[in-house]
Amino acid sequence: MKQDNQLRIALELIKSWSGNEPLHNHLTNEFRKHKQFGSRDRRLYSSLAYSWQRIGKLAIEMPPEKRLALASFLCNDVDNKIRTFLVEKYLPEGMSLLDATTEERLAYVDQNIDKKHTIFPIEMSLSDGVEMTEIISSMLTRPLVFIRITKGKEEDVDQELSQLYVTVDGIELPSGTRALAPGARLDDSFAVNKGYIEIQDLSSQLTGNFINPEKHETCWDACCGSGGKSLMLLNKFPSLYFHASDVRKSMLQNYSERLKKHGYSNFKTYEANLEEKGLEVPKTDFIVADVPCSGSGTWARTPEQAISFNDEVLASYIMKQQLIMKNIISSGKKGQSLFYITCSIFKAENEDQIEKLEDAGLVSIKNKKMIIGSRHGADSLFVAELEIV
């Protein structure tokens, strides 16, 4: 039977993933080996593999066929034919709930199969306003794709991509931001190739609302990565000058290439390990520190990262953040604004970290906010405005 064969292939793909690379990369490499898979096959097997990861450690001892049926039962993005087949064959008691809400299906699982909290890897205090029930529900759903349009290119982009746009309930999108359906493919887009858009999560874009520099100010982007935050700010404030640092040479190369692609030359990059020591950069007007973190606010996009997460990994990130922040502060100047950003929902990485810095007399907290994107098909990020004292 066709569905039995699809089940076999899906379980083989799931079993073949070692955990040493992102699941997306692994699936891409596996699909290259199997040229017979068309685009519909690839979507099907990807959705099943991701559904397996989305349920975390739920029913981890269950036979794999039944566990994949459980994952398909809970998740919303599996092809309806294979979903119905799996649930009917391996979880028949759940058939009447296939069209129920996520909350109703979770309640059924909680009462009859396993405790739903095992979907999330560890029990930790969450940042203000974050509800575990919302986070668990969001883990079972593919997030939306968000793009940020270069100022002045809105009409060109909308003309090409408007058919892919979806509405987002409960929030007004920033000017130049558009939401696309989960998994929207933009690889061959004219707008992408011309540099008219950047794929950037909604919550990441919203962190820019906290930063309002004057003309010709300078910024130290201390953990710059590939330049997402710098590009976002330059799109709003093109006269800014950036000093950008990162420990990874490859990221600095990506940073330079991306900014140059958009026509910016007003930046300088520095290779620096801020865990070990500060960095001598020309004194800037403000600092952005998008620090390494657990990424727990993004696990709906990368659910495979949640499964291997534990208390020891979290403790290492907390220590890393403390070292980086103290070295950044030692390199700054009194009265300087410092924007602390994580993509974590853990209080230990967010409120607790900035309060420790304030208690140590290193900063004063001016403003803080947990941006809960899980309610809008987006990631969840924390941002705080600090002042070096």
Description:
This protein has 389 residues and is of the alpha/beta class. Helices cover 40% and strands 14% of the residues. The protein has helices at 2-16, 23-33, 39-54, 64-74, 80-90, 102-112, 132-139, 154-161, 190-193, 202-206, 228-236, 249-261, 304-307, 311-331, 351-359; strands at residues 145-149, 177-180, 197-199, 218-221, 241-246, 267-271, 286-290, 337-342, 363-371, 381-388. The strands form two sheets. The protein has a seven-stranded mixed beta sheet with strand order 6-5-4-7-8-10-9, with helices on both faces. It has a three-stranded antiparallel beta sheet with strand order 2-1-3, with no helix packed on it. α12 links the parallel β5 (241-246) and β6 (267-271). The longest helix has 21 residues, at 311-331. It is globular. The model has no long low-confidence stretch (mean pLDDT 94).
SSE blueprint and pairings:
Blueprint: H1 2-16, H2 23-33, H3 39-54, H4 64-74, H5 80-90, H6 102-112, H7 132-139, E1 145-149, H8 154-161, E2 177-180, H9 190-193, E3 197-199, H10 202-206, E4 218-221, H11 228-236, E5 241-246, H12 249-261, E6 267-271, E7 286-290, H13 304-307, H14 311-331, E8 337-342, H15 351-359, E9 363-371, E10 381-388
Helix pairs in contact: 1-3, 2-3, 3-4, 4-5
The largest sheet has its strands arranged as 6-5-4-7-8-10-9
Measured between the Cα atoms of the first and last residue, the distance is: 69 Å
Pick out the low-confidence regions. Answer: none
Shape designation = globular
Structural class: alpha/beta
Q: How confident overall, as mean pLDDT? A: 94
Proportion of strand residues: 5-15%
Quaternary state, please? single chain
